[in-house]
């Protein structure tokens, strides 16, 4: 491991100023991903800026939105009584990830910025365009069971590993940022990038920008929502495919509104906008569900080991929508 210094910030301005002072500085939250990457020498920061003492409150605001401090732990967010009742998909997505011990220290900010679990990214002996631009991609012809079926490129077929982000994508969350040039908000959907020919650039963050909070706009029908994760083991495994969904069905059985997002299928949390468009105004039945998934997955392409995920994604979406339909208002 390389030598690095450690600083703790109690205000966001201190964290940002410290980050500006060293080009190789990194923010450190729970460290459950960053420290692993340092051990493997994939990340080699010279300075770690501990941001776990910045706000981590979960605040219900008068307009019905929810503001979650970036330092909130995954456990605290999943257990929050309002989150559990108003956004079941969010609680379930978090509880589907990692282990209780990891969730106790992992934070909302760190979860959003955790890096891919592609084994070739972690293997210094392998070619990886994300780790070393233009070196090649050993995943394309290698073990690619967990890799992308949507939005991938020649350069990279890695997926984003977060479960929580899939729920946040469905909820249209806004990520609050502070940086050297001031504050701004960005939709979670626009924060992560597709790989294109620069898979090493994973987000739209500017240098030294700090995630300070995540805002969830009001969405009353999210009470009827869920998250389903399909994986190789019942626990402690990343998603092959996951689905976050919320539906608003009127008393005639017509879908008034719907939110759908997929995990384990792309370089970023995948909002299923095409499926949503097909579903809105249609009867909540299997014919509509199947038409929607065909539209969403029409552009999906498989690799040697992950072709099956296309059908798996379709079936999981249909099963989740069917489950929510059965739940009643
Ligand atoms: C064995 C294991 C199994 C796991 N299984 C799952 C799983 O099934 N599903 C899942 O979703 N996740 C899983 N995870 C990943 C886990 O959820 C992440 O490691 C965790 O959420 C990262 O949060 P952290 O606070 O520890 O981040 P860190 O490791 O501290 O940081 C991660 C990244 O975020 C940056 N960062 C942190 N906070 C901020 C901030 N406020 N502003 C800007 N940048 C910031 C850091 O610089 C770093 O680049 C697993 C992890 C392990 C080790």
From TrEMBL:
Q: Which PROSITE patterns match?
A: FAD_PCMH (PS51387)
EC numbers, comma separated: 1.17.1.4
| Any one GO MF annotation of this record | FAD binding
Look up the signal peptide feature and give its range.
none
Q: Which UniProt keywords apply?
A: FAD, Flavoprotein, Oxidoreductase
The answer to whether keyword Nucleus applies is: no
Which intervals hold domain FAD-binding PCMH-type? 1-221
Asked if the record carries the keyword Flavoprotein, the reply is yes
* InterPro entries xrefs: CO_DH_flav_C, CO_DH_flav_C_dom_sf, Diverse_Substr_Oxidored, FAD-bd_PCMH, FAD-bd_PCMH-like_sf, FAD-bd_PCMH_sub1, FAD-bd_PCMH_sub2, Mopterin_DH_FAD-bd
Q: PANTHER family per the record?
A: OXIDOREDUCTASE, XANTHINE DEHYDROGENASE SUBUNIT C-RELATED
- Name-wise, this protein is Xanthine dehydrogenase YagS FAD-binding subunit
